[in-house]
Design goal:
alpha+beta; Alpha-Beta Plaits; 2 domains; 10 helices; globular
Length: 294
């Protein structure tokens, strides 16, 4: 008897360092929740999102009926992780996530919200033992994965490269740098974001006080260094200056947009009830992000 095709998929996200954040920087907790509140996952009726403490669950309440729908669910759940990656770049807030197929149930009683299932248990156990940052994809989702580069990781999981602009430039350049500006196209407008992410991971790997954090950053860095050796070598040699990859000024506008976005999300959570509980003075409500849909 053939194995039944999966009908439900679960994205399990853990915000790393949440306990220390709560003890030492509670305003960052308010910022984290405000960022989570802006995730694209909330805007799509095909998915449900649950947030509790340092955990985010996103899943498809309606069961997948065919491979086309399975492709869609895995694609969009991966993009939800990518969206969180975009929003957290430059914030010194990190996450680890797993995406898998399996049984998951979520419903409400009069006074209780219930969520349970083997997918939740498997995701929880897997996430805790994967020494990495970013997203890992379970083999149950591999037949339906599209548009993202993967690399074998541990057991039944693959590492997901969430920065598609880095992947595009790598493919277009043959991993030889710097490249002429003519190679750079609309496919890599967010490349400064990917470089900032690499720079921050490198800093964590080299200088963070906690050896566990350093180990997670090292694993994440190693995946990128093995996939993009020429790019990584050029960036390290030039202190992560974008001029190491293309002529100076190639991504000037994109770099400015990235800095504006980082500043915007640095202010996220200001003026909320949680933030106000940490201070007696009111703060200015943050403006809209230049990247948010209008």
């Amino acid at each position: 008897m053939s194995k039944a095709e999966p009908e439900r998929f679960l994205l399990y996200i853990d915000i790393l360092g949440f306990s220390e954040m709560t003890k030492n920087d509670p305003r960052k907790v308010a910022r984290t929740y405000s960022i989570l509140n802006k995730l694209n996952a909330h805007k799509d009726d095909a998915f449900k999102t649950i947030v509790f403490s340092d955990t985010v669950l996103v899943y498809n309440p309606r069961e997948a009926r065919n491979d086309e729908e399975r492709n869609f669910f895995v694609w969009y759940l991966t993009e939800f992780a990518e969206d969180l990656y975009h929003k957290l770049v430059g914030q010194d807030i990190w996450f680890r996530a797993v995406l898998l197929a399996g049984d998951f149930h979520h419903y409400r009683l009069e006074n209780v919200e219930c969520f349970y299932g083997m997918a939740l248990i498997q995701a929880y156990l897997a996430e805790k033992r994967l020494p990495m940052m970013g997203l890992a994809l379970h083999s149950s989702c591999l037949p339906y994965s599209r548009f993202f580069r993967l690399a074998p990781f541990a057991d039944d999981f693959s590492f997901v490269y969430l920065s598609r602009p880095l992947e595009y430039l790598h493919e277009a350049s043959g991993d030889q740098y710097p490249v002429p500006s003519s190679i750079v196209s609309d496919h890599s407008p967010n490349l400064p974001e990917g470089v900032r992410y690499l720079s921050d991971i490198y800093r964590l790997m080299r200088s963070h006080d906690d050896p566990i954090v350093r180990a997670k950053a090292l694993t994440t860095w190693d995946f990128h260094a093995r996939r993009y050796p020429g790019m990584v070598a050029a960036l390290i040699a030039n202190d992560f200056d974008l001029g190491a990859l293309a002529p100076p000024g190639t991504w000037a506008d994109e770099s400015k947009a990235l800095e504006d976005n980082i500043k915007y999300y640095k202010r996220a959570g200001a003026g909320t009830e949680m933030s106000m509980s940490f201070t007696n003075r009111r703060t200015t409500k943050p403006k809209r992000s230049p990247r948010e849909d209008r």
